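Here is one chain, start to finish.
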Amino acid sequence: MSKTQDASGTANSYPALIVGGLATSTHLELDANEIIAKSNGTSTADLYLNTDGGIVHTGGSIRIHGRTIYTHAPLTKGTNPSA
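Its structure:
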C-alpha cells in the first residue's frame, strides 16, 4: 500500500487506496491503516465481521470507543476481559 492519507469517503475514492463497490452507494474503503464501511460517498455505515459465524482473530488488543475490551494477556479463571 502506498497512500498514507486517511480514507475520507469522497466520490472519486481519493484518498482511499481501495474502494470496494460504487463510492456513491454502500461500499468499503481501505487505506494503509483503516477499513471504513460507507453508506454513500460521505456517510459511514455499520461494519459487520463474520456475521454467519467464525472467530475474528486479531494480532493485538481490541478497542471500542477508546476502551480496551480484550488484550492478548493470559486470562485468569473467573476474570472478565471486558470489565
